[in-house]
Amino acid sequence: MADRIRIGVIGAGRIGKRHARTVATLIPNAELAVLADVSDPAVRALAAELRLDRWTTNTDDVLGDPSIDAIVIASSTDSHAPLIQQAAAAGKHVFTEKPIALDLESTDAALAAVERAGILLQVGFQRRYDKGFRSAKERIASGEIGEVEIIHDAMRDPSPPPKAYVATCGGLYRDMVIHNFDNIRWLMGAEPVEVYAVATCAVDPMFAEFNDVDTSVVTVTFDNGRFAVIDNSRRSGFGYDVRTEVFGSKGALFIGYSRDTPVLKYDTAGVHSDHVHFFLERFDQAYVDELIDFAAAVADRRQPAITGADGRAAIALAYACEASVREHAPVKLARFAKGVSA
Amino acid sequence: MADRIRIGVIGAGRIGKRHARTVATLIPNAELAVLADVSDPAVRALAAELRLDRWTTNTDDVLGDPSIDAIVIASSTDSHAPLIQQAAAAGKHVFTEKPIALDLESTDAALAAVERAGILLQVGFQRRYDKGFRSAKERIASGEIGEVEIIHDAMRDPSPPPKAYVATCGGLYRDMVIHNFDNIRWLMGAEPVEVYAVATCAVDPMFAEFNDVDTSVVTVTFDNGRFAVIDNSRRSGFGYDVRTEVFGSKGALFIGYSRDTPVLKYDTAGVHSDHVHFFLERFDQAYVDELIDFAAAVADRRQPAITGADGRAAIALAYACEASVREHAPVKLARFAKGVSA
Amino acid sequence: MADRIRIGVIGAGRIGKRHARTVATLIPNAELAVLADVSDPAVRALAAELRLDRWTTNTDDVLGDPSIDAIVIASSTDSHAPLIQQAAAAGKHVFTEKPIALDLESTDAALAAVERAGILLQVGFQRRYDKGFRSAKERIASGEIGEVEIIHDAMRDPSPPPKAYVATCGGLYRDMVIHNFDNIRWLMGAEPVEVYAVATCAVDPMFAEFNDVDTSVVTVTFDNGRFAVIDNSRRSGFGYDVRTEVFGSKGALFIGYSRDTPVLKYDTAGVHSDHVHFFLERFDQAYVDELIDFAAAVADRRQPAITGADGRAAIALAYACEASVREHAPVKLARFAKGVSA
Amino acid sequence: MADRIRIGVIGAGRIGKRHARTVATLIPNAELAVLADVSDPAVRALAAELRLDRWTTNTDDVLGDPSIDAIVIASSTDSHAPLIQQAAAAGKHVFTEKPIALDLESTDAALAAVERAGILLQVGFQRRYDKGFRSAKERIASGEIGEVEIIHDAMRDPSPPPKAYVATCGGLYRDMVIHNFDNIRWLMGAEPVEVYAVATCAVDPMFAEFNDVDTSVVTVTFDNGRFAVIDNSRRSGFGYDVRTEVFGSKGALFIGYSRDTPVLKYDTAGVHSDHVHFFLERFDQAYVDELIDFAAAVADRRQPAITGADGRAAIALAYACEASVREHAPVKLARFAKGVSA
Question: Which residue of D has its CA nearest to C261?
Answer without folding.
Answer: D270
